[in-house]
Amino acid sequence: MISINDLRIGGKLYKIKAIETKSGKPMASFTVRVYEKFGEKETTTFFNCVCFSKTAEILLKYGEEKRECFVEGKVQLSKDDEGKERFSVLANSVQLLGDKVA
């Protein structure tokens, strides 16, 4: 039986926030906007992501709204306060692409 949980997305950064943890380790949440066009049809998908430690430090220091990025991680399912399952990405790696947004 094969079992793989691997996700790679590329898009633009939005809603970058530092999250305080009880352990004091850096944690960040952010959203990646992925735009796709198929002929005449256009779609936009938003992926809610979290990262920890050094990845979070770098993202919080150098990441900015609308900057292009490439994220590698895995899918994580959790339940919110209302008991609904939420899909998010646990990012192992975030590469900031291109120049800083002017």
CATH class: Mainly Beta
Order of helices and strands: EEEHEE
What's the architecture, going by CATH? Beta Barrel
The end-to-end span amounts to 49 Å
Query: What share of the residues lie within helices?
Result: under 10%
Mind summarizing the main beta sheet? 5 strands, mixed, barrel
Which secondary structure elements does this structure contain, and how are they paired or packed?
Blueprint: E1 7-18, E2 27-38, E3 41-52, H1 53-62, E4 68-79, E5 85-96
Parallel strand pairs: 3-5
Antiparallel strand pairs: 1-2, 1-4, 2-3, 4-5
Could you walk me through the main structural features you see in this protein, from its secondary elements to its overall organization?
This protein has one domain (7-96): Nucleic acid-binding proteins (OB fold (Dihydrolipoamide Acetyltransferase, E2P)). Helices cover 10% and strands 59% of the residues. It has one helix spanning 53-62, and strands at 7-18, 27-38, 41-52, 68-79, 85-96. A five-stranded mixed barrel has the order 1-2-3-5-4.
